[in-house]
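Task: sequence design from structure.
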């Protein structure tokens, strides 16, 4: 198993000694202030400029996540935690999948809803990871929610950022 698969399976820590369960339990202030965990929670095939020690997705990872319900469920847990951080929540039933604003939206959105915010890069990574690892429907509904927010808050998310997110979500 690769480092990413071991991390997601709970069999190893990241390069800083943190287990995935610890990161899921962090409060929002810590998720905002620490910058070297997002590459582990939402790995992509591109090496991170901010955390070059984090592993990149290998083809074996893509195959493993797409083929393992357990790995996808754990990725979904990471996604739900990060949605909470941004002030959203995921609702899922047999007919629909939706990302909507949560009750924490007024408190959480100011931390990321501003032009050029570093969280916009994180969101690109999240959308890309979800799409590549088998949660493309989740990436699409997250993009849809982000697009709606951008329309309601002109100037807070640039047109270029929206284009990047659209591409990342597929």
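Answer:
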């Amino acid at each position: 198993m690769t480092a990413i698969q071991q991390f997601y399976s709970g069999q190893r820590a990241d390069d800083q000694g943190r287990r995935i369960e610890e990161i899921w339990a962090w409060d929002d202030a810590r998720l905002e202030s620490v910058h070297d965990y997002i590459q582990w929670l939402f790995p992509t095939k591109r090496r991170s400029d901010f955390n070059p020690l984090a592993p990149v997705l290998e083809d074996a990872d893509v195959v493993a996540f797409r083929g393992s319900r357990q790995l996808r469920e754990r990725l979904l847990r990471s996604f739900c935690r990060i949605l909470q951080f941004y002030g959203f929540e995921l609702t899922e039933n047999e007919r629909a999948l939706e990302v909507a604003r949560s009750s924490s939206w007024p408190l959480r959105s100011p931390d990321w809803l501003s032009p050029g915010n570093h969280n916009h890069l994180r969101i690109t990574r999240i959308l890309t990871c979800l799409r590549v690892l088998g949660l493309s429907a989740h990436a699409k509904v997250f993009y849809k929610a982000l697009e709606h927010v951008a329309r309601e808050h002109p100037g807070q998310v640039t047109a270029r950022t929206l284009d990047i997110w659209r591409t990342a979500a597929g």
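The radius of gyration is 15 Å.
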